[in-house]
Amino acid sequence: MQLTITATPSQQDLDEVKAGLISFNAQYINIDEIKPIALFFTDDNGKKLAGLTGSTAGNWLRIDMLWVSDTLRGQGVGGQLIAAAEQEARARGCCYAQVDTASFQARPFYEKQGYQLCFSLDNYPRVHQRHYLTKSLKV
């Protein structure tokens, strides 16, 4: 057995670890319920101006990334992405949503969308905090 440490894993390395984890998890959850979700705003040429990516798993929506270009910030685009993702998540049977964000990012934005702080990690990274928020999607 050999330990390898790398800062540049190959796509195959990542795929093998993911496959191993999926195989293990399949003993406990229905992995077929895990589905990607992505929403985008694009310009007339197809260039992305804003987007949200994540997944739904069982009864949870997980928001991984939310980005709005500087030209669209403050115009409600982020809120539209969240609302549309939550609507799709409800259609997939989700009752809850989860997101994490850094202290210099978007905690007030998510709270304005109805998300509530569950916990924070201090000094992540170094001088910031990482905030974990959830929201009930039940109507």
Automatic annotation (TrEMBL):
<keyword id="KW-0808">Transferase</keyword>
<dbReference type="InterPro" id="IPR000182">
    <property type="entry name" value="GNAT_dom"/>
</dbReference>
<dbReference type="GO" id="GO:0051213">
    <property type="term" value="F:dioxygenase activity"/>
</dbReference>
<keyword id="KW-0560">Oxidoreductase</keyword>
<dbReference type="Pfam" id="PF00583">
    <property type="entry name" value="Acetyltransf_1"/>
</dbReference>
<feature type="domain" description="N-acetyltransferase">
    <location>
        <begin position="1"/>
        <end position="136"/>
    </location>
</feature>
<dbReference type="InterPro" id="IPR016181">
    <property type="entry name" value="Acyl_CoA_acyltransferase"/>
</dbReference>
<dbReference type="InterPro" id="IPR050832">
    <property type="entry name" value="Bact_Acetyltransf"/>
</dbReference>
<keyword id="KW-0223">Dioxygenase</keyword>
<protein>
    <submittedName>
        <fullName>Biphenyl 2,3-dioxygenase</fullName>
    </submittedName>
</protein>
<dbReference type="GO" id="GO:0016747">
    <property type="term" value="F:acyltransferase activity, transferring groups other than amino-acyl groups"/>
</dbReference>
<keyword id="KW-0012">Acyltransferase</keyword>
